[in-house]
C-alpha cells in the first residue's frame, strides 16, 4: 500500500500527460487516433485507483493517540511518539484522533504524501493581530504534541496569534473517501472516454476534445486527492476550466458560447465563497491542510482542530468561525448546481454528450458533496449550516424535479434530474449521513452516466435531435440502447433492487431520523419522498415517450447539428442527402448518398447515411454502456445489506472527525450515517418501492397507455405547464435582477470614468492652461521692445525686493 | 593698474560701464531695426564687461576676467547666429523691422 | 559581479546608439541583440535573489559631496526579479514590433532600446535622487514611442501620459528632496532612517501622501488611472507590453521601496509607535484608505473593462483592476501580502504583456481592435486561441497559473492583515468574480461564436471579399495583405511560448520566487530598528536561508 501511495502522483499525471500528447500532437499527427493517449492515461489511472482501493482493504493503522478535548484518552501509550516517528520515517503520518471502537475494523486508513511545497509565503512568527512581531525569545513553540496532565493537548495554543505563514503543499491525502472518488472518477471516466471515441468520431476538433478530457481527469483527481484546501481549489477551478472548454466545445454556436461563459461565471460566484472560506480557515486556524502538513510537520490540520475549535482559535475570531461553513457551502452550491446557483448546469448540456455524462453528471458536479464529506467536521459543528444545506438540498431536489416534468429535451431532463439528485446528496450530508450521500454519489455516477450516454446514442442516431416530441417508439431502431436506457431509468426512478433504489432510500431514511429536529426530519422526508415520486414519473415519461409506443422519427438533421461542418462544401451534400433520408429506415437510407462522405481529413462523418445504415449502436459505444449498466444495477449491493461501502468510508479520518463533531447532536443511530453500525431500514425500502411503482405507473398511464390524456392534462393546467416549461423564469429573473443591473452599473461607471474622473483631472489641467492663455494674450504680443520693457520691470522689481 | 592711473578710480570705470549699458538698453527699446537692436545688446554686454574688468582689476580677483572672456566668446557666437538669423529673416520679407515678425509669438 | 550593475545600464545606451548608426534593415536586429545581451547579463545577478546578499555598486567618486546624492546602485531579490522581467519582456517587445512597425524604424528601435536603461536604473537605484531621475527618464522614450508610432490621438495620448506621470512625480520629488536634505544623504538607508524618525503625525502623513501620489499615478490607482487606457490603446504593441509589463511596476516598486519604508513606517522608539512601526494615524486611517482605493479600483476597473468596445482598452482597464490587487497586497504590510504584491508585479507583467501581444497580433492582421469586428476566431486562428485562453486564465487567476498565486496571496494578505482584515479581503475577492466576467466576455466575443473577420483594407489585395466567404474553404490558406498568415506565424509562436511557459512554471512552482524575495520584503515592510536585531525561529522554509533572517543592508562601495 505504501508503494501505491508513493506512486500516487502518477494518477493525476498520466491523464495530464495524455492530454499534453493529445493536445500538442493531436492536431497534426494523431488526428483520429487522439483518443489513445487519453485511453492509456486514464486507463492506467483507473487501474491504479482500483489497486489503491483494494490495497486499502487490508491495510491501515490503529490509532492510539488521544483526541484533544474529548475526555481521557482511550488508550494512552508511551509508544505513541515512536509510532509517529516510525510512521514519519516511512513517509506516512497516521492522522491522529479519537480511537473509535465502532469503526469497522478499528483501523484508520489514511496515507499522506507531500510531493513538493507548492505555495508557501509569509513568516510564521508574524503577528496577524497587529502589535509587535514575535521577537527572539518569544514563545513560538511548535512542539504541540505533548498532552498536559489531563490528557488534553496544549498544542497550537501558542501559535494562534501567529499564523503569518501560509504553507500549502502539493500532496496527496489518500483515505477511503479518496479511493472511492478516484475509482468513480477514473473508472467511469475511462468508460466515458471509450464511449467518446465512438461518439466523437469524425468531429473536427477530435484531438481537442480528448485533450480536454485528459485535462479534466487530471484536475478531478487532484481535487479528490489533494491534502489541503488549496489543492482542492486547484482541482475545483481546474475542472471548472475544463467544463468551460468542453461546454464551449462547439464554440461557433452562440448558445454554447453563452452556456460556457455562464457555467464559468456562476461557478466563480461559488468559488468566491470557497476562497473566502479558505482564507477564513487560514485566518482562524493558521493552516489549510486537512490533517497536518504532511510528513515531518507537527502542525495539526484544521479538520482535526475543528472538532474542538474553541481551543485553537483566538477568541477575537470566534465570531468568524461559524461563517466558514456558509462560505464553503457557497462553493459547493456553485459546483454542485444547487439552488440558487444551479442555472448553469442545464445550459451546460450544450457540450458534447460524453461531457455531460462525465463532468455534468458523474464526477465534477459531485465535488460539492465530496467537499462537505471531506470537511465533515467543519460543517457538523454548526446546526445552522446543516439546516441550511438540508433545506437548500431538499428544495433544489423538488424544484428541479418539477422543472424536469415539463421538459422535452432528453439531456435537459437528465440535467434537471442531476440537479435534483445532487439535492438528495446534499440532504444526505446535511442530515449527518455522509456515508449515505457518498453511496448515492457512487450509484448516481453509474446510472446517470449510463442515461446520458444512452441519450447520446439516441442523439447520434437521430442526427442531433433530442426533442422527445419528435420521436417515439425507438425500441426497434435502437434495441440495445433501449435496454440500457431502461436499466438506467429504473435505477434513477428507484425501481426496487436497482442501485438507485437503495442509495436514495438510505438518504430518505436518514433524513427522517435527523437529529437536527424531528420537524425538519419530517419536512425533509416528505419532500424527498415526493421528489422520488416525481423522479420516477419523469424518468419513465421519458422512457415511454421515446422508446415505447408507435414509431416516429424526426425529419432530417437538427438545425444546429454538428455546427462545425459548415465550413466544408462537401458536407452540404451530406446534409442534403441526410435530410432526404428517413433515418433509421435502413432500407432506404444511403440511396443517394454521395461518394464524398468523408471530410477534408479523410474521416468518416458520424451522420452520413452510409454510416447510419450500418450501425446506430457501434460496439465501442455500447460496450462501455453495458459496463455502466451492470454498475447501475449492482452498485447498490456495495452497501446493501452489509454496509460494506459505508464501513469502508467510516475508516476515513474525515468521517471520524465528522462523527466526533456530530456527537454534540446526540441522537441514536448517529454512527450509522458514518458507517459505524446501523442496519437496513426495510420499512423505508418498502415505502420507497411503492413510491417508485406509483410514479412509474402514472407515467405508464399518461405516456404510454393514454398519451392524449397527458396533453389534455397539460392543457387544463396550462399556466403551470408554461411556468414549468419556462423553468420558473429563473434565468430571466437573474438576467433582470443581476446581469442587467450590473451591466448598467458598469455602463454608468464607464461614463463616470469618462466624464467625472477624467473630467475632474481635465478641469484641474485647465487651470494652468487658461492662466497661461490669459498671460499670453496680455503680454506675449510679439513685440520685442515690449518684452524688453517687461524684463526691465522684472529686474527692477527683483532689485527692489533685494535691497529694500 | 590703478598704480599707473591714479586719477582713474573704480567708480569711473563703473560709470562708463553703466552708461554703455543704459545706452544699449534705451537703444534696444526704441529702435526697430533688428541689426541696430542687436548692436545695442552688444553694447549692453560690453558695459557689463567693463564693470567686471574693473572689479577684477581693483580687487585683484581674476574671476571677473574669466567671466569677461566667457562673455566675449558668447557674444561672438551669438553674433554669428543672430546676424545669420537676421539675414534669413531679411530674405523672407525684405525688411529688418522687428514689428514685421510679430507672428513669431505663436 | 558588482560591475554588472553599471554594465546593465550601459548596454542599452550603446545598443540604442548602434540602432541609429546601422542601416535600417539591421536596426531591429541590433535592438534584439541588445535585449538578448541585457537578458544574459541579468542572469548572473541571480545570486542577489537566491544568495541572500545585496550586490552593490556605489563608487565614492560618483557621489556629489555637498548633496550626498549620486550613483548608488544595488540589486536585491525584488530588484533582480523585476530586472529579469524587464530583460525578459524586452526581446519579446522587440520581436513583437517586427510586423507592426513600418516607418522610421531606426528611431523606433532607438527609443525602444533606450527605454531599458531608465527602467533597469529605477530598479537598481539605491539613491533617492537617482531613483527619481530614472523614474522620470522612462517618460521620454515612452513619450516618443506613443507620440510617433501610436494610433489615432497619439499626440494627445502622449501628452496626457507624460503630464499625468510627471505631475505626479513632482510630489514624489518633493518628498524625496525633503528626506534627502533633512537626512543629509539621499541613500535609501539614510532616507529611510530620516523618514522613520519623524514623530509629527501630520508631517508623516503629508510625507507619505506626497511619496505615494507620484507612485500611485504611475501604478495607476483608482482616481488617477485615466491616462492608462488611452496610452495603452494608442501605443504600439511593444509600447503597451513594456508599459503594462514594466513601467507600471515602477510605481508599485516605488511604493515598496519608498512609500512604505520611508513614508508609512516609523521608528518604534517614537512615542505612540508600537512594535510594528506604525503611527496610530497610519494604522487607523491611511492604510485603510489606501486599501479602500485599491478595492474601489479593483471593482470599478473590472466593471469598466466589461463595457469597453475596444479589446485593448479592456485589457488596459484590467490592469487598473489588477494593480489594485497588487497595491492591496503591499499596503497590507504583512509578509504574505508583500510577497504577494511583488509576485503580482512579475505575474501581471507576464500575463498582461502577453495579452497585449495577442491583441497586437490581431491588430497587425486586420487593423482594428473593435469587438464588433471579430468573432469565432477559434476557427481560423486555433493557435492564437490557445494562447488567448491560456493567458486569459492566468489573468483571471486560475490555479496552476501565476495569476492564481499572485491574486490569492494579495487577497490573503489583505485578509489576514492586522490593519485591514477579512472584510477587505472579501471585497477584493469580488474582483475575482468580475475578472472572470470581463475576461470571458472578451474571449467569448473574440474566439467563440460564428466566424466574423474584418475586411482588410491594407495594400489593396483582398484575400477575400466579405466575412461570409471566409466560411468557405478559401479562408484557410490565403495570406493576409501584410504578409502574415491567417494564424500565428513561427515568430509569433516563439514570442508567446516563453511567456506561456513562465505562466505555468510560476503557477506550479512559485516557491523559489516567493522565498527569494522574503528577506527583502521583510526589510522594506518593517521598521529598521527591530528588523536589525530580529532573528526568529522559523519553520517550513524550504531553502537553506531562513525566511525570517534579515539581509545585510549595508551599502559600502564594493570596489
Write the layout of secondary structure elements.
The complex is a heterotrimer of chains A (804), B (106) and C (559).
Chain A: H1 2-6, H2 10-30, H3 35-58, E1 61-62, H4 79-89, E2 107-108, E3 111-122, E4 165-174, H5 176-199, H6 206-225, H7 229-247, H8 254-285, H9 302-306, H10 323-335, H11 344-347, H12 353-362, H13 367-374, H14 376-379, H15 383-405, H16 410-430, H17 434-461, H18 479-493, H19 499-512, H20 518-547, H21 569-580, H22 609-614, H23 619-634, H24 644-650, H25 653-662, H26 682-705, H27 707-716, H28 718-725, H29 730-779, H30 784-803
Antiparallel strand pairs in A: 1-2, 3-4
Helix pairs in contact in A: 2-3, 2-6, 3-5, 3-6, 5-6, 5-12, 5-17, 5-23, 6-7, 7-8, 7-12, 8-10, 10-13, 12-17, 13-16, 13-17, 15-16, 15-20, 16-17, 16-19, 16-20, 17-18, 17-19, 17-23, 17-24, 18-20, 18-23, 19-20, 19-26, 20-26, 26-27
Chain B: H1 10-30, H2 34-59, H3 63-93
Chain C: H1 4-21, H2 24-42, H3 46-51, E1 55-57, E2 63-64, E3 69-70, E4 73-75, H4 77-96, H5 105-114, H6 116-124, H7 128-137, H8 139-149, H9 154-183, H10 188-196, H11 201-218, H12 227-234, H13 237-264, H14 280-306, H15 311-331, H16 335-366, H17 377-380, H18 382-395, H19 402-416, H20 422-446, H21 467-470, H22 490-508, H23 511-525, H24 528-533
Antiparallel strand pairs in C: 1-4, 2-3
Amino acid at each position: 500500500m505504501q508503494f501505491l501511495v508513493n506512486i500516487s502522483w502518477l494518477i493525476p499525471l498520466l491523464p495530464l500527460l495524455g492530454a499534453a500528447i493529445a493536445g500538442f500532437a493531436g492536431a497534426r499527427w494523431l488526428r483520429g487516433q487522439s483518443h489513445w493517449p487519453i485511453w492509456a492515461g486514464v486507463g492506467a489511472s483507473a487501474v491504479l485507483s482500483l489497486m489503491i482501493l483494494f490495497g486499502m482493504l487490508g491495510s491501515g493503522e490503529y490509532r492510539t493517540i488521544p483526541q484533544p478535548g474529548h475526555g481521557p484518552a482511550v488508550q494512552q501509550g508511551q509508544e505513541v511518539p515512536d509510532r509517529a516517528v516510525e510512521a514519519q520515517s516511512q513517509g506516512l503520518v497516521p492522522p491522529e484522533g479519537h480511537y473509535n471502537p465502532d469503526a469497522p475494523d478499528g483501523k484508520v486508513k489514511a496515507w499522506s504524501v507531500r510531493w513538493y511545497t507548492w505555495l508557501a509565503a509569509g513568516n510564521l512568527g508574524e503577528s496577524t493581530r497587529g502589535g509587535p512581531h514575535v521577537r527572539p525569545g518569544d514563545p513560538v513553540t511548535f512542539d504541540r504534541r505533548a498532552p498536559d496532565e489531563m490528557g488534553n493537548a496544549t498544542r497550537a495554543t501558542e501559535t494562534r496569534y501567529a499564523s503569518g505563514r501560509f504553507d500549502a503543499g502539493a500532496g496527496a491525502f489518500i483515505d477511503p473517501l479518496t479511493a472511492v472518488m478516484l475509482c468513480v472518477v477514473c473508472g467511469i471516466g475511462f468508460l466515458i472516454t471509450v464511449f467518446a471515441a465512438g461518439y466523437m468520431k469524425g468531429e473536427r476538433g477530435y484531438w481537442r476534445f480528448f485533450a480536454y478530457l485528459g485535462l479534466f481527469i487530471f484536475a478531478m483527481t487532484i481535487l479528490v486527492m489533494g491534502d489541503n484546501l488549496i489543492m482542492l481549489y486547484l482541482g475545483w477551478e481546474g475542472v471548472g476550466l475544463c467544463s468551460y472548454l468542453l461546454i464551449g466545445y462547439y464554440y461557433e454556436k452562440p448558445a454554447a458560447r453563452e452556456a460556457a461563459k455562464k457555467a464559468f461565471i456562476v461557478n466563480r460566484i461559488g468559488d468566491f465563497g470557497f476562497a473566502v472560506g479558505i482564507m477564513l480557515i487560514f485566518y482562524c486556524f493558521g493552516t489549510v491542510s486537512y490533517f497536518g502538513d504532511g510528513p515531518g510537520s507537527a502542525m495539526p490540520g484544521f479538520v482535526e482542530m475543528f472538532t474542538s475549535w474553541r481551543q485553537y482559535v483566538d477568541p477575537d475570531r470566534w465570531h468568524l468561525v461559524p461563517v466558514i461553513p456558509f462560505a464553503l457551502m457557497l462553493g459547493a452550491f456553485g459546483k454542485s448546481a444547487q439552488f440558487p446557483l444551479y442555472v448553469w448546469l442545464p445550459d451546460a448540456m450544450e457540450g458534447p454528450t460524453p461531457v455531460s455524462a462525465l463532468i455534468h453528471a458523474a464526477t465534477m458536479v459531485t465535488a460539492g458533496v465530496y467537499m462537505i464529506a471531506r470537511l465533515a467536521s467543519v460543517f457538523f459543528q454548526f446546526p445552522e449550516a446543516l439546516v441550511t444545506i438540508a433545506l437548500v438540498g431538499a428544495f433544489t431536489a423538488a424544484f428541479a424535479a418539477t422543472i424536469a416534468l415539463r421538459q422535452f429535451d432528453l439531456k435537459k431532463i437528465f440535467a434537471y434530474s442531476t440537479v435534483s439528485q445532487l439535492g438528495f446528496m446534499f440532504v444526505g450530508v446535511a442530515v449527518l449521513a455522509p456515508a449515505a450521500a457518498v453511496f448515492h454519489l457512487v450509484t448516481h455516477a453509474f446510472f446517470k452516466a449510463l442515461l446520458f450516454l444512452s441519450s447520446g446514442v439516441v442523439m447520434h442516431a437521430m442526427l442531433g435531435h433530442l426533442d422527445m416530441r419528435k420521436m417515439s417508439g425507438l425500441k426497434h431502431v435502437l434495441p440495445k440502447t433501449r435496454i440500457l436506457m431502461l436499466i438506467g431509468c429504473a435505477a434513477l426512478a428507484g425501481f426496487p433492487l436497482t442501485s438507485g433504489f437503495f442509495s436514495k432510500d438510505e438518504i430518505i431514511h436518514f433524513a427522517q431520523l435527523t437529529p437536527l429536529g424531528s420537524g425538519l426530519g419530517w419536512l425533509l422526508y416528505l419532500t424527498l419522498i415526493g421528489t422520488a415520486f416525481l423522479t420516477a414519473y419523469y424518468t419513465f415519461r421519458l422512457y415511454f415517450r421515446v422508446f415505447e409506443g408507435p414509431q416516429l422519427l424526426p425529419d432530417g438533421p437538427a438545425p444546429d447539428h454538428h455546427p462545425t461542418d459548415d465550413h466544408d462544401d462537401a458536407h452540404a451534400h451530406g446534409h442534403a442527402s441526410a435530410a432526404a433520408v428517413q433515418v433509421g429506415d435502413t432500407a432506404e437510407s444511403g440511396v443517394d448518398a454521395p461518394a464524398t462522405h468523408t471530410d477534408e481529413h479523410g474521416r468518416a462523418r458520424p451522420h452520413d447515411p452510409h454510416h447510419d445504415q450500418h450501425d446506430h449502436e457501434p460496439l465501442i459505444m455500447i460496450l462501455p454502456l453495458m459496463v455502466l449498466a451492470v454498475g447501475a444495477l449492482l452498485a447498490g449491493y456495495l452497501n446493501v445489506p452489509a454496509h460494506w461501502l459505508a464501513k469502508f468510508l467510516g475508516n476515513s479520518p474525515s468521517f471520524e472527525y465528522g462523527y466526533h463533531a456530530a456527537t454534540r447532536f446526540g441522537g441514536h443511530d448517529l454512527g450509522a450515517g458514518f458507517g459505524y453500525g446501523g442496519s437496513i431500514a426495510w420499512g423505508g425500502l418498502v415505502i420507497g418501492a411503492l413510491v417508485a411503482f406509483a410514479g412509474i405507473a402514472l407515467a405508464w398511464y399518461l405516456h404510454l397507455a393514454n398519451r392524449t390524456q397527458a396533453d389534455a392534462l397539460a392543457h387544463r393546467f396550462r399556466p403551470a405547464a408554461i411556468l414549468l416549461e419556462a423553468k420558473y423564469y429563473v434565468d430571466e429573473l437573474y438576467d433582470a435582477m443581476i446581469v442587467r443591473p450590473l451591466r448598467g452599473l458598469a455602463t454608468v461607471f464607464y461614463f463616470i470614468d469618462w466624464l467625472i474622473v477624467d473630467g475632474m483631472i481635465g478641469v484641474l489641467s485647465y487651470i494652468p492652461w487658461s492662466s497661461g492663455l490669459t498671460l499670453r494674450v496680455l503680454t506675449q504680443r510679439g513685440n520685442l521692445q515690449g518684452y524688453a520693457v517687461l524684463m526691465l520691470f522684472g529686474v527692477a522689481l527683483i532689485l527692489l525686493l533685494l535691497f529694500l | 593698474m590703478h598704480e599707473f592711473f591714479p586719477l582713474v578710480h573704480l567708480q569711473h570705470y563703473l560709470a562708463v560701464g553703466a552708461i554703455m549699458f543704459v545706452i544699449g538698453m534705451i537703444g534696444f527699446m526704441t529702435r526697430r531695426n533688428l541689426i541696430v537692436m542687436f548692436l545695442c545688446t552688444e553694447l549692453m554686454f560690453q558695459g557689463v564687461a567693463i564693470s567686471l574688468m574693473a572689479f577684477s582689476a581693483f580687487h585683484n580677483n581674476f574671476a571677473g576676467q574669466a567671466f569677461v572672456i566667457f562673455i566675449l566668446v558668447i557674444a561672438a557666437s551669438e553674433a554669428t547666429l543672430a546676424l545669420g538669423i537676421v539675414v534669413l529673416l531679411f530674405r523672407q520679407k525684405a525688411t529688418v523691422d522687428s514689428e514685421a515678425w510679430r507672428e513669431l509669438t505663436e | 559581479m558588482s560591475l554588472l550593475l553599471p554594465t546593465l545600464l550601459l548596454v542599452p545606451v550603446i545598443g540604442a546608439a548602434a540602432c541609429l548608426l546601422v542601416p535600417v534593415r539591421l536596426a531591429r536586429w541590433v535592438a534584439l541583440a541588445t535585449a538578448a545581451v541585457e537578458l544574459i547579463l541579468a542572469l548572473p545577478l541571480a545570486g542577489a535573489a537566491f544568495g541572500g546578499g545585496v550586490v552593490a555598486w556605489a563608487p565614492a567618486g560618483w557621489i556629489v559631496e555637498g548633496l550626498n546624492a549620486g550613483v548608488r546602485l544595488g540589486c536585491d531579490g525584488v530588484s533582480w526579479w523585476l530586472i529579469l522581467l524587464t530583460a525578459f519582456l524586452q526581446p519579446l517587445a522587440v520581436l513583437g514590433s517586427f510586423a507592426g512597425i513600418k516607418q522610421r524604424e531606426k528611431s523606433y528601435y532607438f527609443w525602444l532600446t533606450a527605454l531599458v536603461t531608465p527602467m533597469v536604473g529605477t530598479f537598481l537605484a539605491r539613491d533617492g535622487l537617482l531613483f527619481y531621475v530614472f523614474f522620470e527618464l522612462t517618460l521620454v522614450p515612452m513619450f516618443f514611442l506613443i507620440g510617433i508610432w501610436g494610433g489615432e490621438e497619439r499626440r494627445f495620448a502622449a501628452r496626457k501620459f507624460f503630464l499625468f506621470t510627471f505631475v505626479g512625480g513632482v510630489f514624489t520629488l518633493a518628498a524625496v528632496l525633503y528626506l534627502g536634505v533633512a537626512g543629509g544623504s539621499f541613500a535609501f538607508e539614510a532616507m529611510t532612517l530620516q523618514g522613520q524618525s519623524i514623530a509629527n503625525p501630520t508631517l508623516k502623513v503629508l510625507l507619505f501622501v506626497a511619496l505615494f501620489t507620484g507612485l500611485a499615478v504611475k501604478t495607476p490607482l483608482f482616481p488617477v488611472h485615466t491616462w492608462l487606457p488611452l496610452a495603452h490603446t494608442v501605443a504600439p504593441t511593444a509600447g503597451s507590453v513594456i508599459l503594462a509589463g514594466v513601467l507600471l511596476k515602477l510605481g508599485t516598486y516605488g511604493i515598496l521601496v519608498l512609500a512604505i519604508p520611508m513614508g508609512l513606517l516609523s521608528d518604534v522608539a517614537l512615542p505612540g509607535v508600537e512594535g510594528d512601526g506604525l503611527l496610530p494615524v497610519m494604522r487607523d486611517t491611511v492604510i485603510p484608505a489606501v486599501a479602500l482605493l485599491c478595492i474601489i479600483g479593483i471593482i470599478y476597473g473590472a466593471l469598466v473593462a466589461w463595457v469597453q468596445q475596444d479589446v485593448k482598452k479592456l485589457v488596459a482597464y484590467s490592469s487598473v483592476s489588477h494593480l489594485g490587487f497588487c497595491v492591496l497586497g503591499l499596503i497590507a504590510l504583512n509578509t504574505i501580502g508583500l510577497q504577494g504584491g511583488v509576485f503580482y508585479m512579475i505575474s501581471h507583467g507576464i500575463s498582461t504583456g502577453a495579452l497585449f501581444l495577442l491583441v497586437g497580433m490581431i491588430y497587425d492582421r486586420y487593423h482594428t481592435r473593435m469587438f464588433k469586428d471579430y468573432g469565432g476566431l477559434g476557427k481560423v486562428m486555433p493557435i492564437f486561441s490557445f494562447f488567448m485562453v491560456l493567458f486569459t486564465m492566468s489573468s483571471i487567476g486560475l490555479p496552476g497559473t501565476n495569476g492564481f498565486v499572485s491574486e490569492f496571496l494579495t487577497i490573503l494578505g489583505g485578509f489576514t492583515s492586522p490593519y485591514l482584515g477579512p472584510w477587505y479581503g472579501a471585497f477584493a475577492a469580488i474582483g475575482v468574480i468580475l475578472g472572470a466576467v470581463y475576461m470571458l466576455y472578451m474571449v467569448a466575443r473574440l474566439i467563440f461564436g460564428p466566424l466574423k473577420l474584418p475586411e482588410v483594407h491594407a495594400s489593396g489585395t483582398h484575400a477575400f471579399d466579405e466575412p461570409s466567404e471566409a466560411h468557405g474553404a478559401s479562408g484557410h490558406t490565403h495570406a493576409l495583405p501584410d504578409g502574415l498568415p491567417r494564424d500565428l506565424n513561427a515568430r509569433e509562436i516563439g514570442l508567446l511560448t516563453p511567456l506561456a511557459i513562465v505562466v505555468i512554471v510560476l503557477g506550479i512552482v512559485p516557491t523559489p520566487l516567493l522565498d527569494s524575495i522574503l528577506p527583502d520584503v521583510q526589510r522594506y515592510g518593517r521598521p529598521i530598528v527591530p528588523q536589525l536585531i530580529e532573528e526568529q525561529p522559523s519553520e517550513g522554509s524550504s531553502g537553506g536561508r531562513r525566511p525570517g533572517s534579515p539581509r545585510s543592508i549595508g551599502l559600502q562601495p564594493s570596489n
